[in-house]
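Ops channel
N.P.: pipeline sanity check, posting one input/output pair.
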């Protein structure tokens, strides 16, 4: 019976191919919209998550509360944190903003003052040259490690080790020798938003302090030991720092992974809301299925009467129309899912975005579209099944 119903539904759809194609297109457009939005959200959440990891610290970020007197971050606090049993490594971090000049071009940058071995805490993938060394820090050398976006912006190549950057800092302009080129946090956002997002350069924190006349640190980045809970370690560090200064609430610890999780959940919620909005088009497509099938019932009234007069049951008539709704919904949703995938792939090439396939998105979209189509096909199928043979045969 089911095989016959499938055969009859395909034959019925092919007889009115123009109308069937338009209905199928409506479903395909709706599914493609949901697939595109959901896929963009999934790709975006994944890549932004990677960006946040590259920006951030592999554990805890310690900062001081400037509203509390005596809460300072300096060498004493850094050594206290490094001596903590739960800490694997810790680095001082100082941030500044400036604009670098090279080859008659300018570029906005964030200047990070860091310690040697900072790649243990902050993501720095060395491409050319070297990273900052102990002697760079101790001798306050005027050297700099840059991210590859700067090298590409000025020289259209990655390796510019040995070149000099002119950076306005303090009361004048400082020349810094490029000793290394890295890939660092912000590559995606810088690539997509250009000059709206500044690039990064890294100098010895002692050099930045000497040039700007600043004391202390803005923050201390901490990597906790394996198996240690970052929240617990952060609480212990904050408590120890407060006790060392005889104050309360002078310091705070941020679990960077928890912050990333929160941002990821926000992105997932936004993607879900946008997908639901796009899913409204599937409801519209469902209404078009109902309209098409009601017209089909009207056109095939006499055919239905003949079938019922020779013994066709209500169930078989209803099944035929439900299968018809299922077939057109399935074909439309598969077409839409494939079209959405192709659009995502084509759009990702010029932007340099990786094609990330989430089978769950496709399965949910197809199942939802088919369910909507079948649900909206119930009423026309019911109308067809309830036709009386005598009345159907009289229909012209």
């Amino acid at each position: 019976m089911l095989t016959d119903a499938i055969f009859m539904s395909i034959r019925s759809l092919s007889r009115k191919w123009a109308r069937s194609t338009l209905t199928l297109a409506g479903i395909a457009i709706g599914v493609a919209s949901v697939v595109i939005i959901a896929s963009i959200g999934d790709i975006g959440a994944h890549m932004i998550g990677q960006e946040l990891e590259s920006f951030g610290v592999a554990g805890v970020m310690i900062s001081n509360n400037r509203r509390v007197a005596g809460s300072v971050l300096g060498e004493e606090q850094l050594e206290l944190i490094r001596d903590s049993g739960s800490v694997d490594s810790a680095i001082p971090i100082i941030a500044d903003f400036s604009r670098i000049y090279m080859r008659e071009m300018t570029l906005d940058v964030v200047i990070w003052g860091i310690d040697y071995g900072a790649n243990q805490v902050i993501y720095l993938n060395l491409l050319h040259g070297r990273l900052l060394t102990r002697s760079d820090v101790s001798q306050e050398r005027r050297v700099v490690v840059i991210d590859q976006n700067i090298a590409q912006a000025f020289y259209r190549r990655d390796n510019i080790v040995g070149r000099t950057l002119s950076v306005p800092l303090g009361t004048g302009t400082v020349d810094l020798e490029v000793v290394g080129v890295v890939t660092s946090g912000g590559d995606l956002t810088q690539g997509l938003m250009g000059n709206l997002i500044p690039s990064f350069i890294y100098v010895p924190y002692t050099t930045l302090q000497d040039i700007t006349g600043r004391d202390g640190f803005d923050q201390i980045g901490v990597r906790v030991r394996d198996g240690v809970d970052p929240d617990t370690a952060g609480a212990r560090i904050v408590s120890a720092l407060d006790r060392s200064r005889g104050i309360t609430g002078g310091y705070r610890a941020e679990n960077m992974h928890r912050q990333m999780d929160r941002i990821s959940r926000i992105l997932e919620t936004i993607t879900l809301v946008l997908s639901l909005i796009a899913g409204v088009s599937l409801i519209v497509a469902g209404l078009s299925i109902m309209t098409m099938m009601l017209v089909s019932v009207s056109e095939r009234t006499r055919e239905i009467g003949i079938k019922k007069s020779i013994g066709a049951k209500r169930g078989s008539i209803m099944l035929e129309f439900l299968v018809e709704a299922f077939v057109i919904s399935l074909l439309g949703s598969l077409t839409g899912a494939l079209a959405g995938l192709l659009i995502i792939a084509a759009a990702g090439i010029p932007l340099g975005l990786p094609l990330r396939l989430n089978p769950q998105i496709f399965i949910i979209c197809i199942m939802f579209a088919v369910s909507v189509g079948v649900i909206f096909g119930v009423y026309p199928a019911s109308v067809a099944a309830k036709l009386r043979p005598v009345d159907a045969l009289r229909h012209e």
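N.P.: looks fine end to end. Residues 34 and 277 are 9 Å apart (CA to CA).
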